[in-house]
Amino acid sequence: MKNLERCLLGVLAVALSRPNSTQVQPFRHALTCVRSLLDFPMMAQYRSHTSKTIDYMEEYLMRFHETKNIFLEFGVRKRTQAKADELCRELRWHPN
Q: Which of 26, 33, 34, 29 is nearest to 5 (CA)?
């Protein structure tokens, strides 16, 4: 999981590395959301917990829920899926 976290965060950091002025805040929210989503299970796998580790997990979960809405903009809706399916059919059709 730790290796997955490093790879995913690295890919996102590069993909989101040159935002224009309108993208800075959404990119930060996306990175924060993904980091929190990955940190929570890493902490949860500990064999035992203290009040400090529970506090960390609560913080990760809270941060995830505060920032997850950033991805709603890019969610697949029925209309988007229908358009994507139509474009795929057009790409596959080759007239003789």
A: 34
- Report CA-CA distances (Å) from 94 to 65, 83, 86: 46, 19, 14
Q: Angle formed by the axes of helices 2-15 and 24-44, to 10°? A: 180
Q: State pTM to two decimals.
A: 0.62
Contact in structure between 3 and 42 (CB atoms under 8 Å): no
Domain boundaries, the chain: 2-92
Give percent above pLDDT 90 in the chain.
Answer: 21
**What count of other Cβ atoms lies within 10 Å of the Cβ of residue 33?**
20
Provide the pLDDT for residue 71.
Answer: 81
> How many Å apart are CA 63 and CA 69, to the nearest integer?
11
